[in-house]
């Protein structure tokens, strides 16, 4: 991570706490590792992101419905899903720093460094050759870039084989061959690679024994699969159709860091789309395109998103990719799109002894549907918006300001109503306007401090508009609306304020652009 990006990330984390977005959990007891609480502004932003996703799925698609399944599930659920036997990460420790790392992540980071070296070679050559530079020809003929690419391809192939065979010794050998050092101690004094299961377990009932052992769900998808027939029959759903859900999931991440990017308690927004076998790849491509458009409509910059195909497919998938986002820590997974085949429903049918098939009346046959999944991490979505919205600016008058350019429909507060002074009937008039707006818009009222300071505070929490009530308001029933991003102000009739702000801050208008 570049030093500048590292500083931005630290500033975002600090800003998030100072302005009521995210607090370390149980902070008065020195916190709990990789667990965070959402503050008053964070909770509002989070709820708005949920609404944007939920409405996109359930309002814009008449064949998608939503459910809310329980966190606790029968323990056999996780046997059927493969989580009891296969939900683990390959870990190793550095004997000097005592730090623990995911072996596959260390290898992927080393591959990313090699890719950066290729980009640097390309940049140097582009400067040298100018307009006549042919990037594709250079990459495929330059001995140094070819050498890097061969090493990348070889490493990816070895990692795929080691992952598929759960060969921990082979994974450690890759780390040795790549000469990977611990980023903390700088040494290569590694332990062997071991598998760690990531599920949290607990006991249900009064007796603590294996018979009562249950798990906190590590994903929300299984709650959808076990309810597949309930939803299909009660909703009279015809394939293709989807089931959406937003909910908490829990993973005992051994290496959990990078703020809210990787946590032990997190929230997912998932949709499982049930399709006819053989049609899954066309729906896989359909949802890739749809989900990318959903993200890019927020206006955080199309260049900050990219697709990344999985080299190592999960045991249930026949195709998988990530939508990656350019976080301050680099391009990382934001959303996963997976073709899960019929693995889940077939296994639940096998373990439960209950038939989980769809009767296709047009073809007069029953079959187990295939599934295309879209799964976005709500906390990562929150971090993507917060980090790209955070802006440090130097203004024309030489002063500085920090502004969160959160898309207006997602902003915690849509408008701040500010009387210019705390006298002359201005607060009363401001409250009158506030009471009219608050049924349609999340409003913030403040009358303390100079108006400039209040503007800066609203900039810092991302409020897109400020309505200022001054002495002219009492004369002609107009107010000033200040735009957060441009800082321009316009005079508007009080009677026009509500309609103008609702239009500018509407999630539905955002959805219409997709």
UniProtKB/TrEMBL annotation:
Aminoacyl-transfer RNA synthetases class-II family profile domain mapped to chain residues: 199-419
GO cellular component: cytoplasm; extracellular exosome; microvesicle
Residues binding ATP: 251-253, 261-266, 333-334, 377-380
Key words, A-Z: Aminoacyl-tRNA synthetase, ATP-binding, Cytoplasm, Ligase, Nucleotide-binding, Protein biosynthesis
One GO term (biological process): diadenosine tetraphosphate biosynthetic process
Molecular function GO labels: ATP binding; bis(5'-nucleosyl)-tetraphosphatase (asymmetrical) activity; glycine-tRNA ligase activity
Record bears the keyword Nucleotide-binding: yes
The family this protein is said to belong to: Belongs to the class-II aminoacyl-tRNA synthetase family.
Role, per record: Catalyzes the attachment of glycine to tRNA(Gly).
Descriptive protein name: Glycine--tRNA ligase
Gene designation per UniProt: glyQS
